[in-house]
Amino acid sequence: MASHSGDVSESTGFIAEGYARRLIPDAQLGGAHRVFFIVAGSLCGLPGYVLAAQVVNGMGLHRALYAFVAGGLLSGLLGALSAYSGARTRMNLAMLADEAFGLIGGRIVKTVIALSLIGWVGVILSVLGATAGAAIHSIYAVTFDSAWIGVIAAIAVTAITLRGVTGLEHIGMLIAPLLLALIAWTLYKGCNTPAATVSVPGNLGFGAAVSAVVGEYVVGIVIQPDYGRFVRRPAGAGVAAGLALGVAFPLILALAAIPTFKCGAHDLIAVMVGVGVGLPALVLLVLGAWIDASACLYSGSLSLTNQVKRFQLPWVTAISAAVGAAIAILHAEQIFMPFLALLGVAFPPVAAVNILHTLRSLRTEVTAQPPSLRPVALLAWAVGSLTGYLTSHEYFDVTGIASIDSVLVTAAIWLAGTALTRRAPAVA
């Protein structure tokens, strides 16, 4: 194993190289609780509250609860396997991509991942600026330019990202109890707005609702190896991610949906502002966006640092955050969103290939250097991504859930292709 003498330990609160190109050494391994808090904290943001409102208003409370549980269980299974692959290999997502797709194929995958994640940072900052600005105006009758809020948020996101998984873990430990306390208080206070009425359920299908739940955190599922690699016991990393997504995720959605449905609001934050907890709701909103954007920035910067050898992680992180802030200031997400949606269908197949390759490597000898290309992996990724795109646009479906369809097709092609080419050498 290569020497790590030039790295600054994450336990010191600052990351230099961040092990973007190296295996995690024994000294950096810790407990699985960090994975749980990072994932659970990332789930406590505005996208989850909006999703909960859309699902519960689209199909009613009882059916929505079933959809939350089904989507959470599917997410938990994928997340557990993804985190396990990182802990088992001690590799981040970029390194796993090289192993699973080959060096040339991995470069393509890492570029797609980096573009998507940094783009999402810009979208999160823009949404945070607009939502926080509206909340401040509603509570204090003061107007703030959303662009400046986005810039300030970008600086805060960069600061926590430079602390690595430790910084993400600390925010997660703070936001989860705060959310539970605020929801309990909101349920106790009830709806104070006379005009609030119970929503009339729409015609949202069960499969579409489950797909939306899985899709809401599919990016987080794919990047689990970036956090799981710091866990000493691979099974513990899998259990932590599985519990966060399989249990905490549906619970968070249910707790957000109940007051939203009863008060006929668009999201949980609006309900909290209505019952007089505007400032704590604003803090919750900021913390949720903070950890979500930081997680995307961390993994996106790791992917870029893995490829750009001359720069260390802090510089790549700062530059990536600046790009995200520029997207937010220029409101470029309005143009960037279709591009991000297109890239988003490529994420579940990437996770599937990485997981399958890791599980297979447990039974086979691992070479010191990955081949230049693994054609079967690239084919499985391409066809799986195409399947995700077609099923999300309702051209056809297998299970009725686009994310699961893409994973199943990817797995089938990878397994069949690997079986057929098992005795054939990889492209050198």
Write the layout of secondary structure elements.
Elements: H1 33-42, H2 46-59, H3 61-89, H4 93-140, H5 146-161, H6 164-189, H7 206-216, H8 218-222, H9 225-228, H10 234-263, H11 268-274, H12 278-307, H13 313-329, H14 333-344, H15 347-361, H16 375-392, H17 402-420
How would you describe what is shown here?
The protein is an all-alpha fold and 428 residues long. The protein has a single domain (29-420), classed as Hydantoin permease. Helices cover 73% and strands 0% of the residues. It contains 17 helices and no strands. The chain has helices at residues 33-42, 46-59, 61-89, 93-140, 146-161, 164-189, 206-216, 218-222, 225-228, 234-263, 268-274, 278-307, 313-329, 333-344, 347-361, 375-392, 402-420. The longest helix is centred in the N-terminal third of the chain and has 48 residues, at 93-140. It is globular and about 65 Å long. Mean pLDDT is 81; it is low at 1-14 and 194-198.
**What is the overall pLDDT average?**
81
Structural class: mainly alpha
* Major sheet: none
- Distance from first to last alpha carbon: 23 Å
SSE run:
HHHHHHHHHHHHHHHHH
Work out the helicity level.
over 70%
CATH C-level name: Mainly Alpha
How many domains? The number is 1
Give a quick summary of the entry.
The protein has 428 residues and is mostly helical.
Sum up the structure in keywords.
428 residues; 17 helices; globular; Hydantoin permease; mainly alpha; disordered N terminus
